[in-house]
Design goal:
The protein is α+β, with helices and mostly antiparallel strands. The protein folds into three domains: 5-119 and 162-184, 3-Layer(aba) Sandwich (Rossmann fold), CATH 3.40.50.620; 212-270, SH3 type barrels, CATH 2.30.30.280; 275-361, Translation factors (Elongation Factor Tu (Ef-tu), domain 3), CATH 2.40.30.10. It is 25% helix and 28% strand. The strands form four sheets. A six-stranded antiparallel beta barrel has the order 11-15-14-13-16-17. It has helices at 5-16, 32-35, 45-58, 68-84, 91-110, 153-157, 168-177, 199-207, and strands at residues 23-27, 62-66, 116-117, 122-126, 132-136, 159-160, 216-219, 225-229, 256-261, 266-270, 276-287, 297-298, 303-306, 313-321, 324-334, 341-346, 349-361. The chain is globular. The termini are far apart. It has eight helices and 17 strands. GO terms for molecular function: ATP binding; tRNA binding; tRNA-uridine 2-sulfurtransferase activity. Catalyzes the 2-thiolation of uridine at the wobble position (U34) of tRNA, leading to the formation of s(2)U34. Belongs to the MnmA/TRMU family.
């Protein structure tokens, strides 16, 4: 129970369905004030109090589990290291993979619980053959199956998502009807451990001397130096704002970050059309259900990939290599960066995911 409306209603529904429910709030910050202040739905003392009040209204036991050290190592440190390597991480995927459905689930099973239920918008289904599948939620605008694409078959067998069949406005109305004070609490959209939403400033402060370079050049595709920067961690592929180049491109069009080289500190910029990619490759493959054998190819109208948490679906041909995925995009995508996740779908079903290591630009 994060302290938000979704997990509160999920707990209420599980309790009403006859399950023996215990509310768990995760203390993820060694010092809650150092991560975030204000009611944003994650990580603060206020959120813990909101979760406790919701548990009291529902009538279930409530505990706080301190996973701050594990969270710092597996999520925060991973976030910093990935940015320092010139890549763009998604900390929510890492949190789901290593904290909520690994550390929490392992502890829950050891204590005799059957499953972890959360307020994520997704749907777990069991086939007639007994296989488990992860599917998109009914509410496409709130669907969170992308950030759950790192869950494996065993984790899915012990996961419940009670809100997968309900649109978000209906969830808020239900919360109000149940007397839950979080019914109108705003959703959390920012990175929970970046207090003011300024990721670049946060990385500058935290990385310090750990950064592989403390500045470098901003160049165009011809190699001409256009400006200088304080560190590659302040950039991500596809970024337009904050480049501070001082002079416009010869054609007057905006420039975008095309490439980041953390060792030399070089950031390459160019026109938007040069962001288009038609192929991505990834490692750290995770299967949401039965694993696919190397050599398997997925193709057809129903096969798509999603490359951002709130991004569009792209039709694709997916090949399973040895511990890798190779994805050819039928419709190109813009601004895709190494470090992001590629999540593979067959219709509404999540097949699996991988961490993007390489992309191929259409212009190349």
């Amino acid at each position: 129970m994060s302290g938000g409306v979704d997990s509160a209603v999920a707990a209420a529904r599980a309790h009403e369905a006859g399950h023996e429910v215990t509310g768990i709030h995760l203390a993820l910050s060694r010092n809650p004030k150092s991560y975030r202040t204000g009611a944003r739905g994650c990580c603060t003392i206020e959120d813990a109090n909101d979760a406790r009040r919701a548990a009291d209204v529902i009538g279930i036991p409530f505990y706080v589990w301190d996973l701050s050290d594990r969270f710092h190592t597996d999520v925060v440190e991973d976030f910093m290291d990935t940015y320092a390597a010139g890549q763009t991480p998604n900390p929510c995927l890492r949190c789901n993979e290593r904290i909520k459905f690994a550390a929490v689930l392992d502890r829950a099973l050891a204590l005799g619980f059957d499953a972890v239920a959360t307020g994520h918008y997704a749907d777990v289904r069991t086939t007639p053959d007994g296989d488990v599948e992860l599917h998109r939620a009914v509410d496409a605008a709130k669907d969170q199956s992308y950030v759950l694409g790192v869950l494996d078959e065993q984790q899915l067998r012990h996961s419940l998502f009670p809100l997968g069949d309900t649109p978000k406005p209906q969830v808020r109305a239900e919360a109000a009807a149940r007397g839950l004070l979080v019914a109108d609490k705003p959703d959390s959209h920012d990175i929970c451990f970046v207090a003011d939403g300024d990721s670049t400033g946060w990385l500058r402060e935290k990385l310090g001397e750990r950064a592989p370079n403390h500045g470098g050049e901003i160049r165009d595709e011809t190699g001409e130096v256009l400006g200088h920067h304080e560190g590659t961690y302040g950039f991500t592929i596809g970024q337009r704002k904050g480049l501070r180049l001082g002079r416009p491109a010869p054609d007057g069009r905006p420039r975008y970050v095309l490439d980041i080289e953390p060792v030399s500190g070089t950031v390459t910029v160019g026109p938007r059309e040069h962001l288009a990619v038609d192929r991505v490759e990834g490692d750290r493959v995770r299967w949401c259900g039965r694993a696919l054998e190397p050599g398997t190819m997925l193709a057809g109208e129903s096969v798509t990939v999603q490359l951002r948490a709130h991004g569009a679906e792209h039709r694709a041909v997916v090949r399973v290599a040895q511990e890798r995925l190779e994805v050819d995009l039928i419709e190109h995508a813009d601004g895709i960066a190494p470090g992001q996740a590629v999540v593979v779908y067959d219709g509404t079903r999540v097949v699996g995911s991988a961490t993007i290591t390489d992309t191929r630009r259409v212009s190349a």
